[in-house]
Amino acid sequence: METYDIVIVGGGPAGLAAAIAAKKAGIDRLLILERDSELGGILNQCIHSGFGLHTFGEELTGPEYADRYIRQVRELNIPCQLQTMVLDISPERVLTVTGREHGLQQIAARAIILAMGCRERPRGALNIPGYRPAGIYSAGTAQRLVNMEGYLPGKEIVILGSGDIGLIMARRMSLEGAHVKVVAEVLPYSGGLKRNIAQCLDDFGIPLKLSHTVIDIDGKERVRGITLAEVDENRRPIPGPEEYIPCDTLLLSVGLLPENELSSSAGVTLDSVTGGPVVTESLLTSVPGVFACGNVLHVHDLVDFVSEEASRAGSNAAAYLQGGEKAEDASVCLVGKKGVRYTVPQLLDVHQMPEQLTVRFRVGQSYRDASLCVWFNDTCFRRIRKRIMAPGEMEQFTLRRADLPADLHTITFTVEEDAK
Description:
Elements lengths: L1 E8 L3 H12 L5 E4 L15 E3 L8 E2 H14 L4 E2 L2 E6 L4 E6 L5 E10 L3 E3 L15 E3 H11 L6 E5 L3 H12 L3 E7 L8 H8 L6 E3 L1 E7 L6 E6 L12 E4 L2 E4 L3 E3 L2 H5 L24 E3 L10 H20 L9 E5 L3 E5 L2 E2 L7 E8 L3 E10 L2 E11 L5 E6 L9 E8 L3
Parallel strand pairs: 1-2, 1-8, 2-5, 8-19, 10-17, 11-12, 11-17, 12-13, 20-27
Antiparallel strand pairs: 3-4, 6-7, 7-8, 9-18, 14-15, 15-16, 20-22, 21-23, 23-26, 24-25, 24-27
Helix pairs in contact: 1-2, 1-7, 3-4, 4-5
């Protein structure tokens, strides 16, 4: 059984950035495992621009952004096994993998970086009645068909869900000549970035119907139409007027789920809100030597943040090995309450943390003219006025080690709405 210092599971933007950082930190025995036939992950099908503004200071397409990192991986001679599926990870950091070139094998690792990304929530999770006709796609599948395979899924389109992929596909399908009739969102707010709402819907005159969902799919062999209904605050259809919309294609953009089946098999503790691993400030999971980064940890809104986080994971994994694999004393808990859904990281070792640490989180609803409050134990350390906060836009706060009190045991993030 071959042994590596660090094995990175996933060759997307997170895995590439983590591998590069670990290599630059002095780790030579590295291996990237990627199930696809090429590196780059989901970026290969994201041909629209808007990537790289934070990382490279210029606007790139997804493939261009990925290529910047792929070139670095090749220049650093970091080995990769493509078309290789990881079947299992044991708590002892032994990976069981299979692939066309090497067959079934086991690989031992002193440290593992989980960078498997996320997947789309399928129709089966939505409980929409009706048959299973042709013409129902996840937005990401449609994106791959159009951008990489050269197929147009349909001509008359309805999109359920206003996540970023759904918004981007509304524009993409319009540019290919399809008629996008409506984007429906079950929540009272959009889950996508504001710029995508403006550029992908408003610029093309595509209506966005909030607090609406699909309650029926018409068609047995092929989608012929859908029925749209308004929902109440509990997301239940309101009895009354329903709208039938003829269409031949329904795209689903109803949320992303971190790919953590392998994490579970390794014994990693998962966060009930994010669906990703619980991690310390160094992105170390509950299993010694196993780190996590990118969308497998929590769903990001910008790939630039994925790369930044993954670089920290690679550097921290290298430091973990070079420091003698010492366990952390992560005794400080970070939690989100009263409007803040979660935080990443969830645990903090004050003695191991850098001078400054970025904590990322999302709010649970849209806020206007509210305050973000940061509490050390039961004392409010800082109150930050925010004009707008929305679930589709990730928030962040920089913790400084010099500000932390000696008796710290909990850091809490909350939202306080201003009195009207």
